[in-house]
Structure to design on (591 residues):
């Protein structure tokens, strides 16, 4: 096959307008209703890395994640770790133990999770890695490197719209 | 005096039939029936399916049917071929056979113009390209997508994570597979190949879960599987193909990655090979435009109590290099630029917190303006013809009013025997 085409703005369209740069070794799968971006990594693709957008209360979402590992809910965001994603505050949610994914799937022992929930004026951006604890540990650095790789893309916006987007993302146009 | 049909040679007879009014009347009657049944049938099967059934050059015969499949009229010849016959008939009868001379010049021009219009239709059906460009308010686009053609694109990511130019497997090659065919595609720029071994023209992608189990024997790839669905006959663009593919090393034939591709998935799936990341997408054909469209404002109204637009408007700027041109596109008033025509095909109101959008139908048709030229030429020809007849009529009436010329003494040329 020799046919090709020149690149267009279609090739610069990213879910949620956020470009990511995953490490080599991670592999992207089709997205789903709740999984805007869907990667697998590690031995036998046992680690899942998922980016999503959700609405609702940040604390409630964090506690739902903790609940999947049978952990007690936290009363306030102060009890969560802090980080930064796409120029805004984000909160860390971590857990280890028996993971109950729900939706009729059986619980999995020896699992671990690292989750990040980022504040936003419209919705919450979530980034979560779940897998066997050993594998999650191996992918930890890559996960945070991946979190920092997110970049707001404005190529498809008219100049006058970029300002509004910059205010929302807190990131200046590159 | 014209020869009687029986006295003609075989060639003359064939010419007489081919150029005759009888064929013209038959063709026009058939076109009436085809349009009539096509209009009825599109109610059940949708516009795209019906137009292709009745007007495509692949349709030699057409069987008008109801929504339940019941035949409602005997087979009719396909409209494309009826128009071909009508064109030949028009050329032979309206131009070759027609009387020539200044008195018939207007009629000849009109016949030629109608023939030109039919040719414009043929050129359009072969060379016309069309696609849809959806743009959100405040955004821009430089590509359209062909709704009924789905290509597979394979590309590498550079070090910045940006896509490089893709290698394309065209929709035509994939569709030709059918459900049991297999396709092996090698690429000049890659050292791997892609093998399609199961293609489903109408499918959905499902996630293997306790609530959605795959049918027995169905392959599950990365937790996903394809489900075959019924064709949506009314809205063709909703039909999404899918396929299972293997990425293999070009030299060793070793499997690099097994993938499931589905045209409804808007983003690529990826695999890694020799320390580099590659993406594969199955998507509506991307048609790059030689310009950008910036959408500044889209607005419109629906008919009361419906989702059917009564009118809509898009205020755009078309950017071609350093040239910027403002356009207001409204219903039936498209923007034309460098052989491309942009019609507004739809607009989407935005819910709170969302952005409204416009969808433009983009058409590149080399014969786009030919029917208009043909109409002008035909009108000019007929005007010339009627004016000439009027002048002759007035001249003849004036002569009748004058005193008669003296009667000649010469004997008449023709006598009754």
């Amino acid at each position: 096959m020799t046919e090709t085409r020149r690149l267009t703005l279609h090739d610069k369209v990213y879910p949620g307008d956020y470009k990511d740069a995953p490490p080599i070794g991670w592999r992207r799968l089709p997205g789903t209703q709740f999984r805007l971006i869907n990667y697998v990594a590690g031995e036998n693709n046992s680690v899942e890395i998922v980016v999503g957008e959700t609405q609702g209360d940040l604390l409630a979402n964090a506690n739902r994640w903790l609940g999947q590992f049978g952990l007690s809910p936290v009363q306030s965001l102060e009890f969560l770790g802090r980080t930064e994603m796409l120029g805004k505050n984000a909160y860390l949610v971590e857990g280890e133990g028996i993971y109950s994914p729900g939706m009729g799937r059986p619980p999995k022992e020896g699992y671990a999770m690292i989750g990040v929930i980022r504040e936003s004026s419209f919705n919450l951006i979530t980034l979560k890695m779940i897998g066997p604890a050993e594998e999650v540990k191996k992918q930890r650095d890559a996960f945070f490197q991946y979190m920092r790789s997110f970049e707001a893309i404005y190529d498809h916006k008219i100049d006058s719209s970029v300002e509004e987007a910059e205010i929302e993302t807190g990131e200046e146009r590159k | 005096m014209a020869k009687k049909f029986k006295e003609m040679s075989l060639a003359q007879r064939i010419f007489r039939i081919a150029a005759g009014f009888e064929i013209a009347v038959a063709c026009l009657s058939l076109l009436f029936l085809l349009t009539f049944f096509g209009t009825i049938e599109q109610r059940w099967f949708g516009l795209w399916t019906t137009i292709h059934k009745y007007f495509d050059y692949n349709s030699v015969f057409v069987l008008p049917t109801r929504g339940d499949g019941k035949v409602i009229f005997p087979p009719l010849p396909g409209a494309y071929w009826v128009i071909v016959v009508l064109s030949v008939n028009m050329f032979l009868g309206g131009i070759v056979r027609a009387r020539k001379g200044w008195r018939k010049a207007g009629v000849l021009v009109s016949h030629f113009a109608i023939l030109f219009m039919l040719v414009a239709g043929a050129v359009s059906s072969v060379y016309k390209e069309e696609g849809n460009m959806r743009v959100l308010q405040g955004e821009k686009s430089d590509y359209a997508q062909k709704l009924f053609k789905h290509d597979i694109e394979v590309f590498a990511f550079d070090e910045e994570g940006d896509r490089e130019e893709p290698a394309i497997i065209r929709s035509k090659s994939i569709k030709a597979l059918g459900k049991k065919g297999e396709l092996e595609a090698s690429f000049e720029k890659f050292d791997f190949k892609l093998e399609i071994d199961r293609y489903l023209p109408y499918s959905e992608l499902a996630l293997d879960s306790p609530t959605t189990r795959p049918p027995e024997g169905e392959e599950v790839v990365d937790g996903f599987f394809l489900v075959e669905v019924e064709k949506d006959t009314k809205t063709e663009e909703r039909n999404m193909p899918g396929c299972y593919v293997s990425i293999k090393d070009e030299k060793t034939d070793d499997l690099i990655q097994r993938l499931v591709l589905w045209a409804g998935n808007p983003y690529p799936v990826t695999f890694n090979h020799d320390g580099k990341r590659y993406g594969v997408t199955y998507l509506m054909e991307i048609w790059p435009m030689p310009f950008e469209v910036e959408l500044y404002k889209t607005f419109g109204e629906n008919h009361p109590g419906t989702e059917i637009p009564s009118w809509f408007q898009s205020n755009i700027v078309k950017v071609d290099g350093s040239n910027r041109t403002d356009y207001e596109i409204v219903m039936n008033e498209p923007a034309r630029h460098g052989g491309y025509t942009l019609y507004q095909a739809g607009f989407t109101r935005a819910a709170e917190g969302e952005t409204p959008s416009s969808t433009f139908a983009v058409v590149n048709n080399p014969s786009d303006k030919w029917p208009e030229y043909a109409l002008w030429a035909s009108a000019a020809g007929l005007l010339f013809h009627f004016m000439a007849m009027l002048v002759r009529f007035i001249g003849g009436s004036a002569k009748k009013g004058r005193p008669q010329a003296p009667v000649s003494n010469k004997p008449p040329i023709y006598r009754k025997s």
